[in-house]
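Please fill in the sequence for the structure shown.

STRUCTURE ENCODING:
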């Protein structure tokens, strides 16, 4: 897990309205520029370093004019990790010339850069690193011999080979260096790039299996590339230039200082109403930050006589969104399932050519639950393979007490399956931490099911040391600072439901709680109940199971009213908006503790496997709750000998932990009043703990 950010200053963007969710075109001339009052490099660094505590670096690129040539002056800065009280940097730099047309001489500049040269644009790259792979630390931003820069937040689980002891950041930079420039991205009628020009950047990124977000400066084409994977499993927020802040900004997370202003009134820290309205969204649908939609984007920097009179900056960037190049990936994105309605499929024979994936990928002799179990086991194995990074943790905590991987654990169906599979994939010498949060002590439904789940896991895997970490909280003991901080992490999400989920998830991921040594068979200095904080850097999360296996109540409603096809469309909608509703938010909440969330149910092969299985084998919603919903996962649980978990009904974290009940009572007076007000979708105007 890493934190990444980039800022482009003094560049007019063309085509940005085609790449954002809101299609409103912004004016060419800014009405008024308030300057960088909301987001600064320093507060971005502070937010990002919580995600990547192992190293923090920045890179500045100045695009300048000298004798009619475009000149780029760059410097690299890595924050001192030994003594954070000192402002110490390591600096290296270089100058690269790029021949351009004489039209550049007519472009005016108002800013002076290094060595007295006039700067027409500035790009800042920031990268914070949580080292989970490689034999030695690799700081970000990373530069290659060609002058390309990469900041990357992700894991490569397939598509590009990453050998043991290798770092995927270095390997990806090497792959991208060999790509053609943006000028080569001309496609044939079938959508593939011209072979004689080599691979393009979208070609490379489309092959990666695993979660990622990236920002990449391609030196030879003077183009900045950025984006996030097709499912949106890693957060990347974007601020598109506006009249109040003309910069283009990308960041893994919103800084806390920004959200403190956001959460206030319309006279935020003395700003006038025009700025306040933009920040709070009280009069405009467009807020300062947006979740960047999944995809690959580029901004190519150009100058032109024809455009110079339109912009004082003298430089413009052409924004483009690029197509995915992997046909298997596009099928996952479209989320097409051919076998939807048993009444139709039993009448019309299915031809092999109609199947959504190649026939060779289907194991027709295997039962659906067995096929899914195999795919899930492989997914967990890919995400929990112990690499050299854990050697450091072993030295710190000792081999006997080491828990390198934890599970966000409610004792429900999804987390029980992940825990049982983790036991099969992880060396028996390691402890597995099960992280459970409650806002009602031992009485919350998730605490009850977690203790029951622990007992079942101990029966199924008696040789494993399971450690249930019980994290207790109440709204009364949460400080104002904690609430503001969590609000900054869920932003731009802004409803009470998001805050309730966010608070529960953030506390659970922190792993700071107590262990009942008696039920866990852990005794510490003869203490029955003792404090413990999980140091696991990898957390397994069950996101994606409900969306793909009809686990929500609305799925049952849709099926009862409109049948199988409507159910499929509702599930497809859930999968195609999960990046915006869940994944970006959850990534920010978990990674804030310097930990990485991994989502085995959202593995590409798991998704493909589920799409190959007929919908009526996925769920049977004519049957009662706890039986027909997520039918295939209940069968997987039984294959793992988790009979009790297989019959457990679904509860969302905000209800199972009972934070929703406490929040409703505090903010609406009662659960009844909250339900009447549809509290889950109510936006937070001002939250006071």
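FILLED IN BY: designer on duty
SEQUENCE:
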């Amino acid at each position: 897990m890493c934190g990444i950010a980039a800022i482009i200053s003094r560049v007019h963007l063309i085509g940005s309205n085609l790449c954002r969710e809101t299609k409103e075109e912004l004016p060419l001339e800014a009405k008024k520029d308030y300057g960088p009052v909301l987001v600064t490099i320093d507060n971005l660094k502070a937010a990002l370093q919580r995600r990547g505590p192992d190293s923090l670096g920045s890179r500045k690129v100045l695009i300048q004019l000298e004798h009619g040539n475009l000149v780029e002056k760059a410097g690299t800065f890595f924050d001192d990790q030994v003594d954070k009280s000192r402002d110490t940097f390591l600096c290296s730099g270089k100058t690269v010339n790029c021949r351009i047309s004489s039209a550049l001489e007519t472009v005016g500049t108002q800013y002076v850069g290094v060595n007295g040269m006039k700067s027409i644009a500035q790009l800042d790259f920031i990268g914070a690193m949580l080292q989970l792979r490689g034999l030695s630390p690799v700081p970000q931003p990373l530069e290659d011999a060609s002058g390309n820069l990469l900041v990357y937040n992700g894991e490569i689980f397939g598509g590009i080979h990453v050998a043991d002891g290798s770092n995927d950041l270095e390997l990806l930079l090497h792959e991208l260096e060999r790509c053609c420039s943006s000028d080569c991205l001309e496609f044939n009628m079938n959508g593939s790039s011209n072979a004689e020009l080599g691979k393009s950047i979208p070609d490379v990124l489309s092959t990666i299996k695993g979660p990622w977000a990236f920002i990449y400066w391609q030196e030879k084409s003077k183009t900045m590339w950025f984006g996030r994977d097709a499912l949106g499993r890693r957060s990347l927020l974007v601020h598109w230039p506006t009249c109040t802040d003309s910069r283009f900004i990308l960041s893994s997370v919103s800084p806390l200082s920004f959200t403190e202003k956001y959460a206030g009134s319309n006279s935020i820290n003395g700003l006038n109403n025009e700025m306040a309205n933009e920040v709070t969204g009280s009069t405009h649908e467009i807020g300062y930050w947006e979740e960047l939609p999944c995809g690959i984007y580029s901004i190519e920097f150009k100058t032109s006589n024809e455009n110079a009179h339109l912009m004082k900056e003298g430089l413009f960037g052409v924004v483009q969104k690029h197509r995915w190049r992997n046909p298997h990936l596009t099928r996952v994105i479209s989320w097409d399932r051919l076998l939807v309605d048993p009444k139709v499929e039993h009448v019309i024979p299915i031809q092999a050519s109609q199947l959504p994936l190649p026939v060779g990928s289907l194991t027709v002799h295997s039962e659906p639950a067995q096929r899914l179990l195999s795919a899930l086991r492989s997914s967990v194995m890919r995400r929990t393979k112990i690499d050299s990074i854990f050697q450091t943790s072993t030295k710190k905590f000792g081999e006997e007490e080491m828990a390198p991987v934890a599970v966000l654990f409610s004792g429900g169906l999804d987390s029980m399956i992940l825990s049982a599979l983790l036991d099969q994939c992880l060396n028996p010498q390691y402890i597995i931490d099960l992280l459970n949060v409650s806002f009602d002590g031992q009485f919350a439904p998730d605490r009850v099911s977690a203790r029951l789940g622990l007992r079942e896991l101990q029966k199924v895997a008696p040789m494993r040391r399971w450690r249930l970490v019980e994290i207790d909280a109440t709204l009364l003991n949460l400080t104002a600072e904690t609430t503001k901080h969590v609000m900054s992490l869920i932003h731009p999400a802004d409803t009470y439901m998001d805050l309730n989920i966010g608070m529960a998830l953030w506390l659970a991921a922190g792993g700071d709680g107590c262990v009942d040594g008696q039920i866990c068979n852990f005794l510490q200095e003869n203490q029955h109940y003792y404090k413990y904080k999980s140091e696991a850097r990898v957390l397994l999360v069950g996101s994606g199971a409900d969306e793909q296996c009809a686990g929500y109540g609305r799925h049952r409603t849709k099926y009862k009213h409109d049948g199988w096809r409507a159910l499929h469309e509702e599930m497809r909608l859930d999968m195609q908006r999960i990046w915006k509703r869940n994944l970006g938010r959850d990534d920010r909440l978990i990674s804030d503790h310097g930990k990485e969330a991994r989502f085995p149910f959202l593995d590409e092969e798991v998704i493909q496997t589920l799409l190959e299985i007929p919908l009526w084998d996925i769920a049977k919603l004519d049957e009662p709750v706890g039986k027909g919903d997520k039918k295939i996962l209940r069968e997987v649980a039984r294959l793992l000998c988790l009979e009790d978990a297989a019959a457990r009904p679904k509860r969302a974290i905000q209800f199972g932990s009972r934070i929703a009940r406490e929040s409703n009572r505090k903010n609406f007076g009662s659960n009844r009043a909250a339900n009447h007000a549809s509290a889950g979708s109510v936006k937070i105007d001002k939250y006071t703990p």
